[in-house]
Design a protein that fits this description.
Length: 229
């Protein structure tokens, strides 16, 4: 098990990254400010750092430079900055790798394992996928099957991936942007594509947007899957 220091001030993104990293077997501590990150790295040195650049007290690149002055810990920068000159600046400041937001949880886990391997730390093994359950809905990620009660659902690959993702996040509201990053893993797909797939899933689950059972729209925020009462 590797210890990871997560430096991210956005509460929604922080919760999602914590979930991904802990699911993949890492012990995670999180802070929201640059000075907190430097103090943690000094007092409780982690095996790796995931660093956001848009912090409230310090620019993340400055945090990276100061961190490099006290530690050689692998640093994976998570940034919305996709300008080539900025990425070069980040790498020259001492980053071991970077990810441009939005990115998928799988990509984050793979990149963390890669920087850990390069640093000589054993990467965490992929966890065995467990059954996903919400009410009568049961999803087997390994077999890629989904059942609603006794009936097996006939789903396309994308429909299955979308339903499995929403079931993993059961009880949480996820935005269409999060869905595009985690399920489509593409930045150029528009929200309407997500809405079309949600509409098909609702029909196959025996519900509608007007009378939802599992898939509930939270206006202006996103979608939440909940088990019917």
């Amino acid at each position: 098990m590797a210890s990871v220091l997560l430096v991210e001030d956005d509460p929604v993104i922080r919760a999602a990254l914590l979930d991904v990293l802990t699911t993949h077997g890492h012990a995670v501590r999180s802070v929201t400010q640059g000075f907190e990150a430097l103090r943690e790295a000094t007092q409780n040195p982690p095996d790796a750092v995931v660093l956001d650049l848009g912090l409230p007290d310090l620019d993340g690149v400055d945090v990276l430079r100061m961190l490099r002055g006290i530690s050689r810990v692998p640093v994976l920068v998570a940034t919305a900055r996709d300008d080539e000159a900025e990425i070069i600046r980040i790498l020259n400041a001492g980053a071991d790798d970077y990810l441009v937001k939005p990115f998928s949880g799988g990509q984050l886990a793979a990149r963390i394992n890669a920087v850990l391997r390069r640093a000589g730390h054993p990467a965490a093994p992929d966890p065995a996928p467990a059954l996903l359950r919400a009410g009568e809905l049961v999803i087997d990620p390994a077999a890629r099957t989904a059942r609603l009660g006794a009936a097996e659902l006939s789903l396309t690959r994308r429909e299955f991936d979308l339903l499995a993702y929403l079931t993993r996040q059961a009880g949480r509201v996820v935005s269409r942007r999060q869905i595009l990053a985690e399920v489509w893993r593409e930045s150029y797909v528009d929200d309407q594509t997500v809405d079309v797939h949600l509409s098909v899933l609702r029909r196959k689950l025996g519900e509608s947007a007007a009378a939802p059972r599992y898939l509930h729209t939270v206006r202006g925020i996103g979608i939440k899957l909940v088990a019917p009462r």
